[in-house]
Amino acid sequence: MVVEVGYAQAWDLEACAPWRPISAEAARKRDAAGLSYVVVYREPGREAPLEVRLVSWRDHYVGLWVYDAQGRRTYDLDMRLLDDPSRLLRRYSVAWHYTGSEMAEFDKACPRITVDLFPDGRGRRTEERQGQGGGSYVTSPGLLEDERWMVRPAFGEWPLLSAQVHGLIEPPTFEAAEVAEAAEPGGGDVPATCWRPPRPAQPGPISELFRPGVRVTDGYHPEMAVVEPRRVGSLRIPSGLLAVSGPDTDHGDGPRITVPVPPGEYVLDEARVRFSYHCEWRDAEVATTEPTAVRVLVSETPAATWEMALGPDDDPRLFIEKQIAGFDTDGATGCFADAGAWEPLIALFERGLIRGESGLDGYEDIDDGSMFMQRTRDEASGGELRSFATTGDGTYPVWVGRSEAGEVVGVVVLVEGMPELLPERAGKLTDAAA
Q: How would you classify the pairing of strands 149-151 and 136-139?
């Protein structure tokens, strides 16, 4: 079987076609420089590609997309280049098993199998079945070492990795696809419809959540208006290291996230939004105000950038698309604390809240209507802990705001998820924002 091999700067997902085809030599140069490019494998006479390989060495990434004859993606493989330059980790894969030719690509009813692997041997296989019985089944992948890792081929020596999927028994014969003379690399931005390397979760309008009058939506309420942040107290960090963690989880290794800040006492506040909704039991439109985030305000200087804080075991090279890092909670609770006094502060928290001991010096339940619920204080150092409520269990990212000079100006945890900004408009705010 003959397979044509072509190269391009990018892959257009909407058109299912290469964007700006380039020569093999141009692709080789991009490969050596770590720049992104794609390789397209086609069978002559077949409209859809057999597979598309997406490469970006500077992002430690190689992807593989396999297509069926109808142009539906049937398999995604995310591979990562880590410390050993001679091999690739099969980091993440998704296989779709379409039940018929009429089923649309990525149909929610399509059975699929997801495999999530890590370099330390951990992994998870999730099978999502449809129809009678349905549900998800999670197991350990149970893969051998050579099934988790792949030898990294040299440029131009990659095999057709989807050969077995397409029923090829004999190795194919590769031929270079024709490239127009004017198709060499050019300037200009890559269209938004084109593939780009996976990115972890990105900061949304975090600063705007603390600016009264800004309009946002959470996807459920069509319009919400940001109101004045509520200042609820302060937090002493004499050690100069702020801890952000779940106080209800195992702390054998200390707090999950730490952020260096100048030693001092900092304002704690809540971001809030006001909106209206239809109350069924009143059969009327009702306005209410709810918190969206909690913050340690380190400086009044506006944040120029926001970044997701990482824990000691978080490796950005392993992050898949929109992945988050943060602290875990099993009791819908997070906390800000002085990391230098972490152990005595957590011990007080557990004695006061979990064991229910009364009259504890340095422990206080807070009942002021805010998201903050408990305070503990270490008498020896003066360091403090403040716990706050989240809207559920799970993992919550920690967002660090920095000034143009790179200094930390605020640390934020969103308790309701990341909202979207609504366009500004002239005139008065709605009644819900008034």
A: unpaired
Q: ∠ at Cα 413 (408, 418), nearest 5°?
A: 115
Asked if residue 128 and residue 232 are part of one domain, the reply reads: no
Run of H or E including 343: helix 342-349
Residue 361 lies in a domain: yes
Pairing mode of beta strands 2-12, 173-176: parallel
Burial class (CB in 10 A: 0-12, 13-18, 19+), 133: exposed
Average pLDDT over residues 192-215: 94
Q: Do the domain assignments include residue 395?
A: yes
Distances (CA, A) of 2 to 17, 50, 153, 324: 20, 12, 21, 42
- Check whether residue 106 and residue 224 sit in a common domain: no
8 A C-beta contact, residue 128 and residue 136: yes
Q: Is residue 199 part of a domain?
A: no
296-343 pLDDT, tens digit each? 999 999 999 999 999 999 999 999 999 999 999 999 999 999 999 999
For residue 242, the one-letter residue type is: L
Residue 271 in contact with residue 295, Cβ under 8 Å? yes
Mean pLDDT of the chain: 91
Q: How far is CA 385 from the centre of its chain?
A: 27
Q: What is the pLDDT of residues 7-30, one digit of tens each?
A: 999 999 999 999 999 999 999 999
Amino acid found at 261: V
Q: pLDDT at residue 177 above 80?
A: yes
Do 79 and 165 lie in a common domain?
Answer: yes
- Quote the CA–CA distance of 248 and 376 in Å, as a whole number: 14
Backbone angles phi, psi at 31, to 5 degrees: -60, -45
Domain around 70: 2-183
Q: Which two tokens stand for residue 183?
A: 């198709």
Residues 138 and 260: their CA atoms lie apart, in Å, by 38
Backbone angles phi, psi at 407, to 5 degrees: -85, 145
Q: Which residues contact 206 (CB under 8 A, 6 or more apart)?
A: 293, 303, 306, 399, 401, 412, 414
The residue type of 225 is A
Residue partners of 144: CB distance under 8 A and separation at least 6: none
Residue in the structure block whose two tokens are 């963690």: 245
What band does 219 get if pLDDT is binned at 50, 70 and 90? confident
Per-residue confidence (pLDDT) for residue 34, from 0 to 100: 96
Confidence of residue 147 (pLDDT cuts 50, 70, 90): very high
